Amino acid sequence: MQQEITPASKPSLKPKTLNQANAKGFNLHVNDKWYALAFLGPSVLILGVFVFYPMLRTLYLSLFLTNNVGRPTVFIGLKNYVNLLTSSAYQASLQATAVYVIGVVAFTLILGLLLAQMAVRKLAGIQWFRTIFSATMGVSVSVAAIFWLFIFSPSIGLFDQIGTLLHLPLVQWLTTPGPAMIAVIISTVWMNLGFTFLILFGALQMVPQPLYEAAAIEGASPSYQFFHVTLPMISPTLFFTSTVTLIGAFKSFGLIDLMTAGGPNNATNLMVYQVYRDAFLNGNYGLASAESVILAVIIALFTLLQFKFLEKRVTY
Amino acid sequence: MTTKNGSQQRLLILGAILVAVIAAFAGWSVMSKPAAQAQGAKRTKVVFWNEMTGPAQQQLNTFVKDFNQSQSKYEVVSEFEGNYNEAVQKIINTHGTDASPAVFQSMDISTSQIHHTGYTTPVQKFIDEDHYNVNQIAAGARAFYANKGTQLSMPFNTSQPVLYYNATLLKKYKITPPPVNPSYSDITRVATQLTDRSHKKVQGMTVEIYGWLFEQFMANAGVSLANQEDGHAGTPTAVNFTNAATVKTMKWIQDNLKKGDFVNYGAGANAQNNETASFLSGRLGMFMQSSASIGQLTTGNQDQLGITYYPHPDGQKSNGVAIGGASLWISNDKPSNVQRGAWEFIKYLMTAKSQAQWQVATGYLALNKDSQKEAVLQNLYKKLPATKVPGEQLRAATPNATNSGIFLQGLIQERNLTQTAMEQIYNGSDIQKSLATAQKSMNAYIQGNNRANGY
Q1: Does the beta-carbon distance from A175 to B86 stay under 8 Å?
Q2: Nearest by CB to B18, which of A42, A65, A177?
Q3: Residue to test with chain A: of B17, B25, B453, B455, most A Cβ within 10 A
Q4: d(CA B126, CA B350)
Q5: How many angstroms separate the Cα of B158 from the Cα of each of A211, B74, B106, B131, B154?
Q6: Mind listing the pLDDT tens digit for each residue in A43-85?
Q7: Which of B108, B155, B298, B401 has its CA 20 to 30 A from that of B364?
Q8: Which residues, numbered 416 to 455 in chain B, qualify as contacts with chain A under a Cβ-Cβ cut-off of 8 Å?
Q9: Is the pLDDT confidence value at B35 over 50?
Q10: Which helix (H) or strand (E) segment is B11 a member of?
Q11: CA proximity to B344, closest of B142, B115, B126
Q12: How far is CA B322 from CA A8, A47, B213, B372, B407, in A?
């Protein structure tokens, strides 16, 4: 049909086109360009102004030295990137981010699944536990930070009081590098747990009961059932939560800022925190832009890898 | 067909909602403007940005209210802008727009950066126009915000780093208090005696991991942190963290930490809160902090508070420390009548009466020399004699290149780096190596920054 329309002929005069059924009084074929523009326009505009332009601008800025009012002045090519990747401080930041992200993702998923597996059992009062397990979803970052700061506080902290009772050596949680990292991981996992629990709990409830019955008849042990029935059935959800948690962990800022501010000795100075420091404290926009680009590339890479390898093992 | 039409309709409705929301926002921003302008129609509106919290914020708001009532030409509108660090970037990023302030408060270490933006009019211009008697303002504070004889901004909330000790605790353990201008070994003696005689129930001393304190150790030893005489003679090209005086100071702290006579409270706001809490509960004998903490340390404190000057290295006289705090700047993107209003407001804040009230309410020092005669301040001294000490320390030092601040851009970075070095040293790392690492990073930063700004 399309070939029949010659440049000379006016499409609106064509009596029979594919669009005839839809076109009452006007021809969509002529107007659909405008429709497309009208409907896509707002989102293109908003994405362009708030996503694409900033992205390109960040890329551009990352190739410059910026002066004290944030304008790019000296073009230095990839020097920002080279300086960053060869600096031991930035390498330490990369390493800290890796430890943090792996810790957060692993513990969030394992503990979330454990809680969900417990909550899915039909016991008296289980509703109460389900509410408690998902409660951290309603806690804001600032409240959580204050709460955990009290727990980790060196003089009045809960952890150290328990430690004293058990005659364990006193741990300066937030002022020694190793424990500080553990402390922020614990706090972040706790924050994430509510959401992860709720999603996984939903997935567990969706697993058809007959599968378990069949497995039980076959004489499969509970752990065999878990690994060969439950896990494959909830694998799409598990994949979703792992991706979301991973990206979230890379972007963690609030808890770090409020609990350790990147210290002690830069032990919890994650990549996002370094970007914030360089842009909003040091006013070093060129360097901060380069750091943002590196962070974006790493997140994209990990997400891609996750899709490539994990998705193959996902049973939909 | 109906479903298609239905979905089209839905899309149209969605589009209409979107347009309505955008229109509402646009309308709101248009509508809100005349309303704001109408208020200041008769008076010239002067927007004032500040970063004060707590009692200082309350007192500042009182000043603004009193100033607005005292005259009918200007209306100062005070706006709180969060913490010092973030305010600097906000000031820079809003310059030239309607949102920018006419007069703003910016922290001590941003002085060189703010000046070099070229976004401000030095207050010197108004001092000259008015033949304002600048000598009534403390010289040590003025020197910090001046460059080559030009007063760039007016010192406002000004503090001195001092050493606090719990006089009641010292009496209890029969320890002679440190002299008013102590050396390092005076402090070591008191810390050791406190730790020993209390059988470790009382921690002797802590030096917070804080770049400001690091800078003051150098200032008091008379050593430049940056070359070009700490930037007062020209643009610095390098810093010197690895000098003998600094190494000696760091060794003093590290040795005492190892012995257990000093303790480490870490860095940042948490450290500050924790050391203050320990001090107030009688578990920490001495610590160093801004004189602006006096208010917090005297209200509700049963024990007697002792204050000394900042400790100096053994075998030399103290050179004096630089002030801390912030100053008031006048933006140059506002018409001259607004700038005039800003200057009138600054003058109001600097009167002997305002400054005396300021010190009583906040612990920041009264900078006007005549404030010392004001009754409110006299009453405070009578009630708490120790509060005299920080002002005396400020007046005792003769301003010179090493105790008038560092005129260098990127001091936030410098503090970050020196704090990292301090953290490493406190945890037992090699002093020379830690300082050298920080120095190398800072020099690279300075080089890039000088190049970007074409110095």
Answers
A1: no
A2: A42
A3: B453
A4: 14
A5: 74, 26, 12, 24, 11
A6: 999 999 999 999 999 999 999 998 888 888 889 989 899 989 9
A7: B401
A8: 416, 419-420, 423-424, 427, 441, 444-445, 448-449, 451-454
A9: no
A10: helix B2-39
A11: B126
A12: 84, 49, 10, 21, 12
Q: How far apart are CA B407 and CA B144, in angstroms?
A: 8
Strands B284-290 and B161-166: antiparallel
CB B401 within 8 A of CB B230: yes
B423: which 2 tokens? 């953290």
Q: Does A50 touch chain B if contact means CB atoms closer than 8 Å?
A: no
Show residues of chain A in contact with B15, CB under 8 Å.
38-39, 42
Residue from B419, B431, B211, B260 nearest A264 by CA: B419
- Cα gap A67→B448, rounded to integer Å: 9
> Are residues B92 and A263, on separate chains, in Cβ contact within 8 Å?
no
CATH of A82-313, one of 3.90.76.10, 1.10.10.10, 3.40.50.2000, 1.10.3720.10: 1.10.3720.10
Whether the Cβ atoms of residue A255 and residue A151 lie closer than 8 Å to each other: no
As given in the structure block, the two tokens for residue B333 are 């993107």
Instruction: Tell whether A91 lies on the interface with B, counting CB pairs under 8 A.
Output: no
- The reply to whether residue B452 touches residue A67, judged by beta carbons under 8 angstroms, is yes
- Residue ranges of domains in chain A: 2-61, 82-313
Closest residue, chain B, to A41 (C-alpha): B15
CATH numbers and ranges of domains, chain B: 41-159+324-383 (3.40.190.10), 161-321+410-452 (3.40.190.10)
